[in-house]
Amino acid sequence: MNTTTAAVLVPLLPALAAAVILLTGRRAPGYVQPLAVVPTLASAALAVFVAVRQSGREPLLAGTSLTPTGNPTLPIELAVRLDGFAVLVAVLVAVVAGCVQLYSTGYLRGDPRYASYAALVSLFTSAMLLVVYTDDLVVLLVGWEVMGICSYFLVGHYWETATARSASLKAFLVTKLGDVPFVIGILALASDAGSFRISDIVARLSSSLSGFELSHPTLVALLLLAGVAGKSAQLPLHTWLPDAMAGPTPVSALIHAATMVAAGVYFVARLLPVFAASAAALVVLAALAALTMVGSALAALAQDDVKRVLAYSTIGQLGFMAGALAVADREAAVFHLLTHGAFKALLFLAAGVLIQTAGTGSLAAMSRMRELRRRAPDAFWAMTTGLLALAAVPPFAGFFSKEAVIGAAEHAALDNEHGVSSSLAAPAAAGWIVLVAGLATALLTAAYATRLWLLAFHDPVDARVESVPPGERASSAMTGVLWALMVPSLLLGLAYGKLPDWLDGGSLAPTLTTSVLATGAAVLGGTAVYATWRRAYESAQAEDPAPALLGPLARHAEAGFHLDAVYAAAVVRPVNAAAGLVRHLDRAVIDTCVRGAAGAPGLLGALVRRAGTGNVQTYLSTLVAGALVLGVAAVLVAVGD
Amino acid sequence: MTERELLSTSGQEIVFVLVGLVVLGAAVLCVTTRHLVHAALWLVVALGGLAVEYLLLTAEFVAWVQVLIYLGSVVVLLLFGLMLTRAPIGPSPDADSGNRPVALAVALASAACLVTLVVDAFRTTWIDLETPHGRSEALGDSLFRAWVLPFEALSVLLLAALIGAIALSRARRARAGVAANGGGR
Amino acid sequence: MHLVYPAVLSSLLFCVGVYGVLARRNAILVLMSVELMLAAVSLNLVAFDVWLRDEIHSGQVFTLFLIALAAAEIGVGLAIVLLVYRERGTSAVDRLRALADREGNEPDGNEPDRDGPAPGPGGAASRETTTT
Question: What is the ipTM of this complex?
Answer without folding.
Answer: 0.84
